[in-house]
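To assess whether ligand presence alters the predicted conformation, the chain was also submitted together with zinc ion. Input:
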Amino acid sequence: MSDSNVKIFDTTLRDGEQVPGCKLNTEQKVIIAEQLDVLGVDVIEAGFPVSSPGDFKSVEAISKIVKNATVCGLTRSVENDIKVAAEALTYAKHARIHTGIGTSDSHIKHKFKSSREAIIERAVRAVKYSKSFVEDVEFYAEDAGRTDNEYLARVCEAVIKAGATVLNIPDTTGYCLPSEYGAKIKYLKENVKGIEKAILSCHCHNDLGLATANSIEGVINGARQIECTINGIGERAGNTALEEVVMVLKQHPYLNLDTNINTSMLYGMSQLVSDSMGIYTQPNKAIVGANAFAHSSGIHQDGVIKNRETYEIINPKDVGVTESAIVLTARSGRAALAYRAKNVGYELTKIQLDEIYANFLSFADKKKEINDNDIHQIIETSNVYQQIISA
Ligand code: KIV
Ligand code: ZN
């Protein structure tokens, strides 16, 4: 693996599936997993096998069909969780157990009623036990975002010694600022003995809308895996959106960080997940929202028609969207009307356009958005229609 390569760990089927009201059956999960594999993700977190017989069945079914990606199962630092996950992963070509425990003082005190030392012992036991089943063991320090860095470094050191090959540093509550999260990753890179034997992984939640920024700051500071979901779905305000981090890295090549993702599949993947889960994607969602490549103000439309790059930093084809949309509303100018009229077969002169534009504005003031049928109607009822069709 080159040092510029950032692994994409997709957790749509585990953390993503924790969205209230969302339930996928095994068949739907298998279809999504197959597509994630083709998309080029490095790891598919297929579920939390001990949590229910249905989840076990899904992880097992996904393990059987995934060809390239590593298939991962989540566990707590509990022996039975680990044993059951290993069983569910039996058929995976590349299997990973993702085990861990809360490390913040809040989790240690309130969730576990335990002590820092006892938590390290449990973490080490869980990693060692996982290693008795698979070589590839990832450890998560839950609530690492609010865990004291010095203690977190001790936890990381201990689990690397026990055999963990990936260290997940979750900002479980979405609390960190990008500078803080980046500094945490840097601190671990510089202070954990044996860190060169493991990959640091960013797992950020979006409670303050900072999940993407935090993950990017994490990889800038030395992490080499990002945990994310399609459309950013997940617990509460969701997880880091896969399509966002992948496109940030692609559009900023000077960062010298890349992924194995086939970006032209991103839009289709977003639709598949949204349709299967019955979760509507907000129109202004970055990269995959319905308006991500739609231009509606006259000034922007004029610019985009002259040259797409005036108002677009991404070529829509790069993410699987066929073309930018010029949306006609009462805010649109003549350039946009002429462009859309041409698309439906009318080549208008300047005088014809002036005449039709006045009709267009009064029509658009009544109707929010003008579609192709409306354009025909506006032109056909104008004084210059005869001129246009006889030209
Ligand atoms: O957010 C989190 O801390 C998690 C862990 C279980 C990895 O999802
Ligand atoms: Zn999470």
